[in-house]
Amino acid sequence: MTARAIRVVIADDQGMVRAGFRSLLDAESDIEVVGEAADGEQAVAVVRRERPDVVLMDIRMPVVDGIEAARRVAAAGLPTRVLVLTTFDLDEYVFAALQAGASGFMLKDAPAEELAAAIRVVAAGESMLAPRITARVIDAFVTRAAVRRPISRGELDRLTAREHEVLGFLARGASNADIAHALFVTEATVKTHVSNLLAKLGLRDRVQAVIFAYEHGIVAPGEDPAPS
C-alpha cells in the first residue's frame, strides 16, 4: 500500500519564489503541493480549506504577515504545521514566528534536498531545529528580546534531573544523536526523555522547549553550543 503524500501549501508574496518551490517539491514523490497563497490572509484561508500537513510560510507578506498567519493557524487548532521561510537578516522575525506557533524555520536559499527533508521532519510531528545554526540564531533572538518569564519551581520540579539535563541540551540546539552521545545513552532513551519533559511542561514540541528554556533562564544567550 502506497503511503499518502505529504500535503503542502506554499505562502510567499513573490510568484517566482512560489513557482520555484513548487518545481522543487513536485520532483519529490512523497510531497504534493495542494495550494499557494500570496499573503498571510490568503495563507490562513487556503490552510483552512485544504488542511495540509505543512505550510511553508514566508514572513514578510502583505495584508497579514507570516507571523500573524502562523499565530492564526496555531490558534485555530488546525493539524497543519508551520515551517517558516526566512533569511538570516530576519532573525528577530523568526523568533517571533516560533513564539507564534511555528514548528521551525528554513533558509530560503537552502538546497532542495534540505527543504524536502525539513518538510518530512515537520510533517512527522518533529521540529526543524538545525543543530548549532539554531543555537546561534536563538541566542540572538533572546538577546534582542530580553524577555524572561519568572521561574516557576512548580513547572521545573516536575522534571527529573535527567530530563532537566536533556532540556538544556535541546536549548543549545542538540539533536537526539548529540544528546545520546553526550549522556552515553541510546537515541530511543533520549526520545523518551524528550517526550516526557514536553508532556510534563505542557509544551507542543522541541521549538517550544527551546523558548521555555531561555525564558526561564535554564540556559543563557552565549552559552556553549550543542556537543560535538
TrEMBL record:
Domain HTH luxR-type span(s) in chain numbering: 152-217
Keywords (A to Z) from UniProt: DNA-binding, Phosphoprotein, Transcription, Transcription regulation
InterPro entries: CheY-like_superfamily, NreC/VraR/RcsB-like_REC, Sig_transdc_resp-reg_C-effctor, Sig_transdc_resp-reg_receiver, Tscrpt_reg_LuxR_C, WalR-like
PTM sites of type 4-aspartylphosphate: 58
Domain Response regulatory residues, every copy: 7-123
Family matches, as Pfam families: GerE, Response_reg
Descriptive protein name: Response regulator transcription factor
Organism name: Demequina muriae
